[in-house]
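I'll show a record.
***
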Amino acid sequence: MLHGNRASLPVVSLNGMRPFALWLAVLLVLAHLAAQDAGVEPVGEEATFTLDVRVVNVLATVKDSAGGLLSDLSREDFTLSEDGQRQQIQYFAHQTDLPLTIGLLIDTSGSQQMLIPEERRAGMMFLQSVLRPSKDLAFLMSFDRNVELLQDYTNSLQLLERGLGELVVEVPGGGFHPNPTGDRKQTSTALHDALYLAADEMFRNQVGRKAVVIISDGYDVGSKVKLRTAIAAAHRADIVVYTIEYVDIQFPRYLGMMPGSGAGALKKMSEQTGGTFFRVSRRNRLAEIFRRIEEEMRSQYSLGYSPKRGLDKPGFRKIGVKVSRKGAKVQARDGYYADAI
């Protein structure tokens, strides 16, 4: 259940999520126009757009062997496949200007109590920098034993700042984490539920570029859905997930856990959706990580294709994206559900 002043959203079946063809047609037209502004390399004759066009969109980030972003690639540098079968890239754009929708999800379980002030400051700096007035939208959610919508979709920085000001660590009660005093009182962290609800409820009717940024230590306790179900919802909503592991190094001493042992789930969320996993450290502060996420968002390549096999049969299909540049690494979602296109 997603709690908040603006919405109370139930956990619903993934089968209820079916974007309409009209949204996809609008997305394709917007992508085509944005690509013209950004410098498209057309493929064959100019495309004709109709309401029955069904296109799989893939946002890709490409880095060199040192982790630096590559921004000078052309369509010919990319190879795209679906279930091992090569596909024709029908539209291509770099630095896409499509509208951006961002969900900022922040862990407010007991283990995050000392980290909230910095998360507020860095999160606000990030939103101020990345949101374009009258074009982009953002929402804010917190999660502990429940998932709470602190601020619904808005482009108002004032409302987002107010929402960040409402970040409050839960009162311990349910789950397995002790609180920061060392008492064995319990608290829950519904990390999987947070991603699931953001994908299935908040992004269901959105078009354009969609991204989630999650700040957490990565430990999930008490979620109603499994990690694979949350990632499946992100695939269906076509979301790029950026995860930030932020651990209070004092807190794990009371758990008997090693810092970083909760990173596995965060890495899977990012790697399978085309995002990046980050870890906050003394050398890699939260504000710097937000800057890098913004830089990646502004350096994405947009690839689109109509599957050769058609989309009449449901199920998950694997996507492979490669580039010819030696040593380059591509970040892109690893697949999609045909019935969600």
User: Anything to note?
Assistant: The radius of gyration is 20 Å. The helical segments are 21-38, 116-130, 157-165, 191-202, 227-237, 263-271, 286-297.
